[in-house]
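Question thread 4412

I'm putting together a teaching handout and wanted feedback from people who do this every day. The idea is simple: show students a protein as raw sequence, then show them the structure tokens that encode its fold, then repeat with a second protein so they can compare. Below is the first pair exactly as I plan to print it.
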Amino acid sequence: MNALAIQHPKASITPTGIDFHQDLSFEEWNDLGTTLAPVGKSIGFMLGDWINYGHKAYGEKYQEALERTGIPYQTLRNYAHVAGKVALSCRQDNLGFEHHAVVAKLKPDQQEHWLGLAAEQNLSVRRLRKSINFGRLATEEEVQGDPADRGQVTYLALLNRLRRWWKRETDKAPVEQWDEERRQGLKNDFKLVLDIYEAL
């Protein structure tokens, strides 16, 4: 059994990634993501709670945690800090660990307020942080308007990402081997790029 106890007939989940043995249908791929996502969102809390329990029951245990997990000290310390500051009853399962890290410095009633708002409004971590700083819900425009809050993304960076993606996909299998559904889906998705090209 693998470490995550997640099994799939067409893939093996290992400590270093997923080895796909067969092609997945879109539904299979989607279902696997739905299964994996909660693990990613909760692992920081699981490790943080584990460390905090060990500390309470046995004293300082970071050395043991470092040896058991191989995770850097600062990361484990952050997990333990956030898990210790944000009570289990206050945590929102539809928000990521980083959302909770943003509110860890606040009092419990404020944590509950901001996490509830983040879940209700589907706030990004950045927008949640900005909203707390403002003391009110920040608009998307306010978040996007602050140069300190966004990296500079140029069309060349996007094209390079697209080139890398294309190379990875065609290295796995030539386009001629792709099924018609996948090819048609990508044609539909990439029509926007063609429209941009033709507008120039």
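The second pair follows. I'd like the answer to focus on this one:
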Amino acid sequence: MAKVTIYSTPTCPYCEMTKEYLKKNNIEFENKDVSEDENSAREMVEKSHQLGVPVIDIDGAIIVGFNRPEIDKALGLQK
């Protein structure tokens, strides 16, 4: 199974959409709240080179925003 990490904030609607989408597809993930965790925020910027959330790391593939086709591709969920 893929290692999935989501860098998010509690007020981000796209972050919530991403987490719900992964849950619906039974994909386990680690959530890192970048509004509370400075180290996670720094890690997110190093990986994505920007400050917007969500940033999704799927086995090293970095996806910025709730981009369902890219998420599906990285997870091998394409039909």
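Top answer:
Good format. For the second protein you could add a caption like this: Residues 63 and 69 are 10 Å apart (CA to CA). The chain has three helices and four strands.
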